[in-house]
Specification:
With about 450 residues, the chain is of the alpha+beta class. It has 14 helices and 21 strands. Strand 2 and strand 3 form a beta hairpin. The N terminus is likely disordered.
Length: about 450
């Protein structure tokens, strides 16, 4: 399977998304610029990644693009894109130009980017509110601020022009939170490639192997399957490194008896997988590792069982927490009644993060987890991670924690809310302890 096997959403899908935005923007105007080109040093360009909001509405992956969505009685979508440039294309690849973009994206008008400064003020003047994310400090933002200044001067007399500015996320975050069928399929593909990478990483694990070797196996499998690359910096934490939540150095050698935590995801068609598995380097868990592992796995199961429409994202977290706290009390790590421990929060030293985050075009996709002070109710089409974990720092200063010091275990799956419950998008990668042990291939095996 290659990247070419992953078709993008149809032109009509993108057009339908733009219509939904125009319905919600009212009499306002939304301006979405492309992401800037990034450089690793001096003039060395990094692979280009699109602004996710602009991509969500247009499917375009073109630096310099600016989309303007004008609401009101005569809604209009106008694009500004770079013109063809033979010299620039020699170095950075072909550009479609306004004509090429117009053939691909059905909008009301597509102009050369050089005309933005001339045309944008009139487009902005048609709205009473601007939806634009401040902070870019570039030419487009200068135009936005200029339009606001002009409206303040002329608005009282003419009654036209924008008087306020809002973050586009107030509209787009809610739309992106509920995935359509095309997006769910894209996420299935990203998760399938992610599972392939994890299997390759597990097969590379053995005492004496560098964490970086496992990282290379994971990411190599991603690329072979057609992924753009990793969705985020791959984590391969062996031994005590698994207790560092965002350990990305991947520079140590795996030791005999270590656990190896792999947290990795593939980016496929700009959508992402995000999976964690914790595996025994020697092919089998020790008794104390197995006790902690089985507890985290029970928490994962409890959290996934709580996923269904109408339940809350907080209830998913609470299911994981209650299972972990009950188990920690049984292990003698925590003392007291389960409810009291949860209320006091003493479990947080071992489980310091939330159980879930939204997943989609961004690894940490946008969307509120609470509305009006209340936890968010889950709806069909929402996609998020379920990732309980337990971490016992090697320098634990409490006697109970010292028994498991140096053990870090996280188990993470990606789930989509369905009409009757949820679909575990990463279910093809096992989580039961015996099955996880079977994933590990010893370097000494013939």
């Amino acid at each position: 399977m290659t990247a070419l096997d992953f078709p993008e959403a149809s032109a009509e899908t993108f057009a339908a998304r733009r219509r939904r935005v125009l319905e919600r923007v009212g009499e306002g105007v939304m301006v979405l610029p492309a992401a800037p080109v990034q450089y690793s040093s001096r003039d060395t360009e990094r692979p280009y990644a699109p602004d996710r909001e602009l991509y969500y509405l247009t499917g375009l992956i073109e630096p310099g693009t600016v989309a303007v969505l004008v609401g009101g009685d005569e809604p209009e979508v106008v694009l500004f894109v770079r013109e063809r440039d033979r010299d620039a294309e020699l170095w950075a690849g072909p550009r479609p130009g306004p004509e090429g973009v117009a053939e691909r994206v059905s909008v009301d008008a597509c102009h050369p980017l050089t005309e933005l400064s001339e045309r944008l003020p009139d487009l902005l003047a048609r709205g009473d509110t601007l939806h634009y994310r401040l902070g870019r400090r570039d030419a487009v933002e200068d135009m936005i601020l200029g339009a606001l200044a002009t409206a303040r001067r002329r608005g009282p007399r003419r009654g036209t022009g924008p008087r306020g500015i809002l973050d586009p996320g107030q509209i787009l975050d809610e739309l992106r939170l509920r995935k359509d069928a095309t997006e769910i399929e894209a996420l299935r593909r990203a998760c399938a490639v992610t599972v392939d990478g994890h299997r390759a990483g597990a097969a590379a694990i053995a005492p004496g192997v560098g964490e970086w070797v496992v990282e290379a196996a994971v990411e190599g499998a991603f690329r072979r399957a057609g992924a753009t690359g990793p969705a985020f910096d791959t984590i391969v934490g062996s031994g005590e490194n698994a207790c560092v939540l965002h350990y990305v150095r991947n520079g140590d050698v795996i030791g005999e008896g270590d656990l190896v935590l792999i947290d990795a995801g593939a980016e496929v068609g700009w959508y992402h997988g995000d999976v964690t598995r914790t595996l025994p380097a020697s092919g089998s868990f020790s008794q104390r590792q197995r006790r902690v592992y089985d507890l985290v796995e029970s928490a994962r199961q409890a959290a996934i069982a709580a996923v269904r429409p109408g339940a809350t994202i907080r209830a998913v977290h609470e299911a994981a927490v209650r299972t972990l706290v009950s188990g920690l009390v049984d292990l003698g790590v925590l003392d007291g009644r389960v409810d009291d421990v949860i209320e006091e929060g003493t479990h947080v030293r071992y489980f310091p993060h939330q159980t879930s985050h939204w997943l989609g075009l961004d690894v940490h996709d946008p969307g509120d987890y609470a509305r009006n002070g209340e936890p968010r109710a889950l709806e069909e089409g929402m996609v998020f991670t379920v990732e309980p974990g337990l971490y016992f720092p090697p320098d634990a200063d409490d006697e109970a924690g010292r028994e498991y010091a140096g053990i870090g275990i996280r188990i993470e799956d990606d789930v989509a809310v369905t009409a009757s419950g949820c679909e575990v998008l990463t279910a093809a990668l096992p989580t039961a302890a015996a099955d996880v042990e079977a994933l590990v291939t010893r370097a000494t095996t013939p």
